[in-house]
Amino acid sequence: MRQSSFRRTTSAAEIQKMESRFHSLLLLLPLLTFLSLNPVCESGGGGGGTGVIKVNYKFAGSDASLSALRAHDDVRHLSNLAGVDLPLGGTGRADGSGLYYAKIGIGTPSKDYYVQVDTGSDITWVNCIQCRQCPRRGYHGIELTLYDPKDSLTGKFVSCDQDFCKEIGGGLAGCNANSSCLYTESYRDGSYTIGYFVEDVVQYDRVSGDLQTKSTNGSVIFGCGAQQSGDLGPSDDALDGILGFGKSNSSMLSQLASSGRVKKMFAHCLDGVNGGGIFAIGHVVQPQVNTTPLVPNQPHYNVNMTAIQVGHDYLNLTADIYMGDKKGAIIDSGTTLAYLPQVIYDPLVKKILSWQMDLKLQLLHDQYTCFDFSGSVDDGFPTVTLHFQNSLTLKVYPHEYIFPFEDLMCIGWQNSGLESQDKRNITLLGDLVLSNKLILYDLEKQAIGWTEYNCSSSIQIKDEITGSVHLVGPHTLSGGCNFNPHVIFLLLMALLHGLIVAGIL
């Protein structure tokens, strides 16, 4: 028995529905093309993310001085004593303004600000709405943001009679209770910032797992920059401000630690090869780092240097020369080069150049000792080893202290004796020697240490709450758009789901 054949007749309504499906699919093609040519940006760039989180600040309506922060409930603090991961970007350039910068969120709603990491500064500040000459675009085209305390639900001014202003000696003559606490911050290159203090919620990333973070916040008093000069003004290297991670109570680290939100210890690993690197607050357990004690009663991170070795030879200098009036050497991530007193600089450069006796030296811009050299600097010049108290050493390789500049090779060591008289004895070690090393600052033990490290790899931070250890990875921030295929996939799935629910697909 033959099976009967059946031919289904398609109704006009079904044909219309099929045509609708076809046209819907055609509508997806422009979207796919647009997404492929215009990658979706991850939240957190430029002018702030899209999400708005209402923050109920404990000290709203009252004076949140350092004293009040220190008296904050210890039980509440324990929930915040995990590590902190601050995204880091930029690159150190010996022939210009070396820039390593972090991204933080400020205000409610939060906006993103790019600030230079500076362990030599005690004050964190960002450019304020009153600053007329401040740039709107800066390093690598980053879109800069002027902070306006009136735009933030949690922003408020700091007055002269508040404890913070009194403790840091802020405010000028004639400053009264109803006046804003003013500040002025000057830097070694002659640049300065002038403004007033404000208080607001700062958003940052708390380490929650291996290479994972959760957003958290804390109240911080910082400078609102109304006027800048020098390298802080308009330039291709401009940023929103400076993230002060110095030793004093006014630094961001000290304020967060005083409120019990973080441990008073942090580390950075500046990637001199790929740019960016690691900047984390918390107890670093891996890699293990040997430390040397900080020189007491000094405003900066000073350590005792005991000797300098060039290749296998030691400079013939007495111990008191290295001490620099018993102040030691300053470790400063906000400085690009390394500065030595003339009594150290002269024999060091002489010993380095003795490895290539036929060099014709040139002095560029009255500061760089340069020469023509076409070979490998690592093969042609010695490693310089700095020795410190507690047998801690720091190796500086030729490619780290010799850099190309105007078709020549130049020595990055600088003579601080050429500076003003009050700086003639300064030994200051900047990114020239700090790059490609994990630098650990332990203010609870008043020690600092370092180890050679691949800054494009990860470090391990201990969670003080659970005792567990988590990985913190490197960052390479840029002002551009970050391609996120997961976001594109989710958008497409949402669109397709909507079409199916509507009965079109």
Describe the structure.
With 505 residues, the protein is of the alpha+beta class. Helix content is 18%, strand content 31%. It is built from eleven helices and 31 strands. Strands 3-4-10-5-9-8 form a six-stranded mixed barrel. The radius of gyration is 28 Å and the shape is globular. The two termini are 40 Å apart. 42% of the residues are buried. This is Eukaryotic aspartyl protease family protein. Residues 1-43 form the signal peptide.
How many strands, which pairing sense, and closed or not: the largest β-sheet?
Answer: 6 strands, mixed, barrel
Q: What's the number of helices? A: 11
Class from helix and strand fractions: alpha+beta
User: Using only CA atoms, what is the Rg?
Assistant: 28 Å
Mean pLDDT value? 78
Distance separating the two termini: 40 Å
Low-confidence segments, given as residue ranges, are: 1-12, 21-79, 480-495
> How many distinct beta strands?
31
- Report strand order across the widest sheet: 3-4-10-5-9-8
Which strand-content bin applies to the residues?
Answer: 25-35%
Shape: globular
The helix content is 10-25%
Keyword list:
disordered N terminus; single chain; 18% helix; alpha+beta; 31 strands; 505 residues; five-stranded mixed β-sheet; six-stranded mixed β-barrel
Mind sketching the topology for me?
Blueprint: H1 12-37, H2 66-70, H3 74-77, E1 84-85, E2 88-91, E3 99-106, E4 111-118, E5 125-127, E6 156-157, H4 163-167, E7 182-186, E8 192-209, E9 212-228, E10 241-244, H5 252-258, E11 265-270, E12 277-281, E13 283-286, E14 291-293, E15 302-303, E16 305-310, E17 313-314, H6 319-323, E18 329-331, E19 338-340, H7 342-353, E20 362-364, E21 368-371, H8 377-380, E22 384-388, E23 392-396, H9 398-401, E24 402-405, E25 408-411, E26 413-415, E27 427-429, H10 431-434, E28 437-442, E29 447-452, E30 459-462, E31 469-472, H11 485-501
Parallel strand pairs: 4-10, 5-9, 18-27, 19-26
Antiparallel strand pairs: 1-8, 1-12, 2-3, 3-4, 3-8, 5-10, 6-8, 7-8, 8-9, 11-12, 11-28, 13-30, 14-29, 15-18, 16-17, 16-22, 19-27, 20-21, 21-25, 22-23, 24-25, 28-29, 30-31
